[in-house]
Amino acid sequence: MRQQDTLTTAAGAPVADDQNSQTAGPRGPVLIQDVHLLEKLAHFNRERIPERVVHAKGAGAYGTFRVTRAMGDVTKASFLSEVGKETEVFLRFSTVAGERGAADTDRDPRGFAVKFYTEEGNWDMTGNNTPVFFIRDPLKFPDFIHSQKRHPATNVKDPEMIWDFWSLSPEALHQITILFSDRGTPDGYRFMNGYSSHALSFVNEAGERRYVKFHFKSLQGIRNLSAEEAQELAGSDPDYATRDLYDAIERGESPRWRVCVQLMTEAEAEASELNPFDVTRVWPHADYPLQEIGVMTLDRNPENYFAEVEQSAFSPGNVVPGIGFSPDRMLQGRLFAYGDAHRYRLGANYEHLPVNAPRAATARTYQRDGAMQFTPNGGGGVNYGPNSKDGPIQSLAAAEPPLRLQGDAGQYDHRADADDFEQAGNLYRLLSVEERERLATNIAGSLRGASRPIQERQLEHFRRADPEYGEAVAKKLGW
Ligand code: NDP
Fold it and tell me: What is the average pLDDT score of the chain?
């Protein structure tokens, strides 16, 4: 018979009895000196950490990114420098609006967050399965999410709130069109694309900046659930996508994505009529063609969901030399919000958790202490800079060229000169007759729950994207 380990307390002492609490006699009450019982109950009470306000339900896996085109001409990021070079990644997929127990098949964008453990530190690409977003100013993010979540009185999701906000935010139309298309209910996480959505930047050794958008194209192809299938699965198998990803990887069917970029020079960005930093707009493929740079494969499941997926923490602020930000307002807001969310959920030392810690480069900072400091904490080494004690020093290798800005500081109406309708219309027009029919049905199924003035306001947006689009939804609503 196999020798089993002795059960211990968290402090490592053997436990004499894990089946019976200490009691005063065989029928008497439990004794407060039963510290094993007290510790077990107390720890259980503390098992949950705050769930993410958005992207609460997720699934993750490890894998590899392999370069197929050396990118040294446009970025000094060393993990992109040589064909064949491999970098470990961790990817967390998620839904957005639902809570931790919500159904995987809900109509919702899907989070697509990739951590690249490069030798120069971690780069996090905090993307979605959609190339655009609902809003373009981070000031509107809490309002947007409130409108999509539960009503303050009924605690039920409310189409009146959802469409009230959207109908007063015309910039949402493009993403609404994607959300209610077939792609709003992907068949699990393997059969969908991922997009950085934001413009980021590449900087090369010569100090030249280019703006870049990332596209991860599923090599499994695109596969969606019908609205009926998605709804049925939400009841019969709410963890459908989580299970599908885990099981596929266990079977050795490692899902893969072709990783591509669109590039734009600073001069092109300045001359562009379309604001390239508006996350509600795509960069047309005809003007900014996709260029393949690598392939990403997911081939290893986490061993412990809580430790590796629930505690995984991504931030668009995690960049490496050669990759930088852009003036995209939403990206700028996320640079604050992501790290802030992690410090709240996981504590100041969240980057030390194994799933979050850089692999090759050991982080060398002058940050010390804080709750749950479980690393050597810098030992007896110097904890301030500048110093004359051979402590780590800054490196010009990470420096970026200056970014030219224009205009006076102020609050500029982001809706004043934006065309919120053209690209939504372009998308509508590229859909097949059957896809348009399903789009109108899906929208009407939700918009029907809003009051008539809100329906009318929203219909006007569809009409402006394409008169046929507006007509199709109006017909489904029975107008
Ligand atoms: P293209 O015709 O070159 O691109 C159209 C793209 O639309 C395709 O490459 C595909 O992107 C995506 N697409 C195809 N079918 C669907 C669908 N049923 N639902 C959602 N997306 C679909 O034209 P443009 O680049 O000028 O873009 C036209 C419209 O396509 C845009 O307004 C936008 O709505 C949408 N789109 C554009 C993307 C871009 O980065 N330019 C990316 C995704 C969508 P993919 O290959 O990534 O699946």
Answer: 97
Got the DSSP string for 212-224? EEEEEEETT---B
Portions of the chain given CATH number 1.20.1370.60? 135-168+421-479
Residue 127, Ramachandran bin (φ over 0: left; ψ between -120 and 50: alpha; else beta) = beta
Select which of 36, 55, 174, 215 is catalytic. 55
Q: Give 158-174 pLDDT, tens digit per residue.
A: 999 999 999 999 999 99
CATH of 135-168+421-479, one of 2.30.30.110, 1.10.10.10, 1.20.1370.60, 3.40.50.300: 1.20.1370.60
Is residue 423 within 6 Å of ligand 1 at its C-beta?
yes
Backbone dihedral region of 34: left (phi > 0), alpha (psi from -120 to 50 degrees) or beta? beta
Number of Cβ within a 10 Å radius of residue 155: 9
Active site residue 128: yes
Q: Are 63 and 87 in contact (CB under 8 A)?
A: no
Q: Is 285 a catalytic residue?
A: no
Q: Which residues of 385-419 are buried (b: 16+ CB within 10 A; e: fewer)?
A: eeeeeeeeeeeeeeeeeeeeeeeeeeeeebeeebb
CATH fold, domain 58-131+186-358, is Catalase HpII,  Chain A, domain 1 (2.40.180)
CA of 178, closest atom in ligand 1: 20
Q: Per DSSP, what are the bridge partners of residue 264?
A: 211
CA of 245 to the centre of ligand 1 (A): 25
Supply the DSSP symbol for 16.
S
Q: What is the pLDDT of residues 307-325, one digit of tens each?
A: 999 999 999 999 999 999 9
**CB distance 183 to ligand 1 below 6 Å:** yes
Domain ranges in the chain with CATH number 2.40.180.10: 58-131+186-358
Judge if the upstream peptide bond of residue 289 is cis by omega within 30 degrees of 0. Answer: no
Q: Is 130 in the pocket of ligand 1 (CB under 6 A)?
A: no
- Distance between CA 467 and CA 478 in Å, rounded? 16
Beta strands in 48-166 (DSSP E): 58-67, 86-95, 110-118, 121-128
Whether the CB-CB separation of 151 and 158 falls below 8 Å is answered with yes
Residue 472 three-state SS: helix
Does pTM surpass 0.90? yes
- Compute the distance between CA of residue 272 and CA of residue 173 in angstroms, rounded to an integer: 22
